[in-house]
Design a protein that fits this description.
InterPro entries: Ketosteroid_isomerase (IPR039256), NTF2-like_dom_sf (IPR032710), SnoaL-like (IPR037401). This protein is an alpha+beta fold. The protein is built from three helices and eight strands, in the order ααββαββββββ. The chain is globular, with a radius of gyration of 14 Å.
Length: 129
């Protein structure tokens, strides 16, 4: 079984990879038959080929930055959740999207399920300083 510490490290690494725009690194965190639901309510994306395409078409199409906004919470049975913020342009405006990701891990520490909880209601315009 994957440890709570491994879950915390992998989820924090996920945010770092999103911030860096490292699609290959992100995809490498997933198991072969993983499922991504981003956001929850959209049809699930299943398998590494589809997951890679999802990230290349989404994250790869725009410049974003990502920051953890609280600690990664991890269970003792292979699950974790974390709050983070994605800064990007939305409809030409600099915005921040506040997200909670919930992930389930396999015994090898690979992500087998990722659910992202967000909608446009979680989008805030960045103030111009």
């Amino acid at each position: 079984m994957v440890s709570a510490q491994q879950i915390q490290a992998t989820m924090a690494r996920y945010v770092e990879l999103v911030d860096a725009g490292d699609i290959d690194g992100i995809v490498a965190l997933y198991s072969e038959d993983a499922v991504v639901e981003d956001p929850v309510g959209k049809p699930p994306v299943q398998g590494l080929v589809a997951i890679e395409r999802f990230y290349r078409e989404g994250l790869g199409a725009s410049k974003v930055s990502a920051t953890l906004t609280g600690p990664v919470r991890a269970t003792l049975n292979g699950c974790g959740a974390m709050p983070f913020r994605v800064d990007m342009e939305w409809a030409g405006q600099p915005c921040s999207l506040h997200v909670i990701d919930v992930m389930e891990f396999d015994a090898d520490g690979k992500i087998r399920s990722m659910k992202a909880y967000w909608s446009e209601i979680n989008l805030t315009a960045q103030s111009h300083a």
